[in-house]
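In pairs, describe these two lines:
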Amino acid sequence: MSGLRYVYAVCHPYESPLQRQLSGVAGAPPKRLTHHGLVAVVSTVPEHEFTEEALRANLEDLDWLTATARAHQQVIDALTAVTTPLPLRMATVFRDDSGVRSMIEAREEELRRVLDRLAGRVEWGVKVYVERPPESSAEAEGAARPAAKPVSGRDYLRRRRDQTRAHDDVWQRASEFSERLHGTLAAFAEDSRLHAPQNSALSGATGQNVLNAAYLVSRADSEEFVELVDREKDDVPGIRVELTGPWAAYSFAGEFAEDPGVES
């Protein structure tokens, strides 16, 4: 093969084939590269896009970054359906097959240790959001009617105080609920990670993120985990729970799934 070698993941040997029409980064189909009893899933990418200098520029290009991240994730999702991959960080690139083999040899013990730990397990994500507290019926009715006279400064301050108290109450309930939910889910899961809350302006999600957690769960226990999340959901006005997955265990892959980079 010519070009650079893009590595998506490392895994134990697997028998089930990937989707026939699956394409990876830059449109190339992923292939298996077996070495020392481990499989690196790779594809060929053009050197002019993935040299260290070119990659620094491309990572500033939102369209390029979005397309590359989507293609990378497609391959990881396909692998997750047939085996337990150890996903590598996006844009992990080597000069040739020998570079990939050298990486496997240099990190073989660590790769096997992480793969053994992740075997048969997937990641589930749980987020809790605080949404705008609902208006009372009286407030809604008042807002729908034209004001008979200007609102006094005292009335305005009182309304603002009441709105602030209502918002604070929702945040308090959301914090208590999130702490209780995380404790329950973490006790069920084999491992968990608490991530920083997401910025709603960047994520596009409605509401403010209070809990952003990942849970490592056995595939065999995943259905029970999903049911547990459903049972624990409180019907609390202004609080929303979002469950995503199952994913490859990015949050538990350690340094292998960190920020994008290039290996020579």
In short: Residues 134-144, 259-264 have pLDDT under 50 and may be disordered. The chain has two domains: 4-119, 121-251. The first strand starts at residue 4 and ends at 11.
